[in-house]
Every structure is written in structure tokens, then in C-alpha cells.
# Entry
Amino acid sequence: MTQSKALSMISELDRPIKVDLLALPGCSLLTLASSVEPLRAANRQAGRLVFDWRFVSVDGQAPETSSGIAWPVQGRLDPSGRSDILAVVAGFGAARMTERKLIGQIYRAARNANLVIGIESGAWLLARAGLLDEHRAATHWEDFEEFAGAFPHVDLRPDRYVIDGRFITTSGASPTFDMVVDLIGRILGRPAALDVASSFVHDELRAAGDAQVNVTLGDTLHDPRLVRAVRIMETHIDAPVSIAAIAKRVSMSARGLEQLFARQLEQTPGAYFLSLRLAAARRLVNDTRLSMTDIASRTGFSSESSFSRAFSRQFGTPPRDSRKARSA
# Structure
């Protein structure tokens, strides 16, 4: 079923739209709120119950969020139950949620939903169930390299959120808010979506295809060419391209790109690119059990020894020692 067909079916319902949100341990309070508050505001703006949502968990108990606060749920996930929209909300630890029973439940529940959304790290569970194979998808930038390695048949994008067929995936709390407002607009119309955004004094709705890199660059206004250059870097962590090639792709000379980085980021593009690769490497060192050779390969280093030297210079400790300290 295509996304347009799914939305058409949902928008034509003569009853409230049933939304099941599966909250998994480790998810963020902010992401959970971003998933549901726009729906509440849409109901308020419409003056009727448009979205009938409920939170569920795997065992019916309140899952503990990343801040240690338990999130109340209305019951247990029923994989055989029908829903118009199923949202899988996950955060820390999603990459290690590999239990066959859980994945099977998510697979069956997704088959019984018209529209399926993987929120923040929810894409991990959908991908593990095989639902995202040959689909475009998004995930949080911290997980990008590990996710791409784990699911080579998923077309992973560094976007804020991705809509492909009847599947939607988001990369974090803020993109989730924008996605839900977008969804409201597709169902109730653009004016309703703008009213919802205005009720939260949210005056800059971002598009699905906007890069997550805009967030990592901070709040100041950056030259669009700089944003495109950094996005190219972030999508070539495993196979770095030359600064000259990046400059050409953003319609600049290599010297012009050097000057742009110096002016706006106070460092060279080469140094910035290396810092991105090493930040990705540190996440893989500390948050996965991948071998150092695999991590070196996934972050564009020619050998484990060259990776270890660069890591030590950047962080003051060898990668193996960093892993030991994290697990101690």
C-alpha cells in the first residue's frame, strides 16, 4: 500500500483515527510528547475527536524513559488488533532489542496497520522486522553508521524524517513534531496544520528532506553551501571524499570552501571532516561491540593502527582504553 493510498483511507474515515503508540524502554520524554501533543492540539482545533490515540507497551507496564521517569500506558500491545496508525517509539538501547518475540509482535502489528511510523530509534525495530528493506528511512544521526552497517538493504538518508510508501521514520524529537504536524496537514489540510504549529508557538516547520546537520551546526545562520558540504561529509563517513570533490559538488573552489569553513566554523574542512569521522568512531567504540578493525573501516580509516593514532590524538586515549573505561 502506498502512503497516498494509506492516507486517503485514513482521511476518509467517518470515525476517529485509531493511533497506537508503542513506547519502548529508553525512549525520550520529549520524543513521546512530540508524538502526541500535536494530535491533542489537532483535536482541540477541530473541536472534535479526530485522533483517538493510546500508548501501549510490550508487557502492559509503564516503560522507563531515558530520564528514568516511567511513561504511563493504557495497556499491552495487541499484535492482532487493527489500527489506522502504528507508531513505534524507541530511543537508547533500540539497537540491542533483538528478541524474536518482540520483533515478531512488531511485524504482526505493522501488518495490521495502514500507516506505520518508526520514531527516533523506532526504525531499528522496523528494520529488524524486515519492514524497511528496499525503503528509504531516517534514524538519529548518532546511530547512522551503525544502522547502515546493520541493515544494508535499507536506503538510509540523513534527513529529519522520511516518508516512503506506508512507512514513515523520524530522526529525533524535533523532527517527530514536524512530521506529526505534516501528517495532520495531509489529513485535515494545511490550515489545520499551521494552527497546530501556532498553538505551540512553533514558527519554523522544517521539511522532511532537511538535513539533520542543520541542528549540529548550531543556531546561527550558515551559508547553504556550508550546510551542503557538511551533509556530504556526514554521508561519506565510511568512504571519505576529497575536499576538492566536496567543493566541486557545492559549486565552489577548494580555496573558497577553506575560507568559508574558516569564517563560519573556525577550522579547515579537512579538520571538520576528520572530527565527524572520529565522533562516529567514538560512538561505535563506546556503544557497540564491533571490532576495532570494523570500526576503522566504517569510519574511513585505512587500517586499525591509523585509526587508533587519530583517535588517541583527538580524545587523549586509545579506542580500546575508551571502551574499557565505558564498560567498567
Observations:
- The CA atoms of residues 37 and 177 lie 8 Å apart.
- The chain has a mean pLDDT of 89.
- The longest helix spans residues 269-287.
- The chain is about 50% helix and 15% strand.
